[in-house]
Amino acid sequence: MVRYATVLPRSVGFVPRFVCVRGLVTLADAFEAAARGLPFEEDFREVEIVAHKAKRVGRNTELSLMVDRPGGVDLELCGRIAARLNDLLESQPDPYTLEVESAGIDRPLFTPGDYERFRDQNVLVKTTLPIKSEYTHRGKLLGLRGNAIVLEQRTGELPIPLEMVKSANVEYDYRADLKRAKNERREKR
Question: Model-level pTM?
Answer without folding.
Answer: 0.73
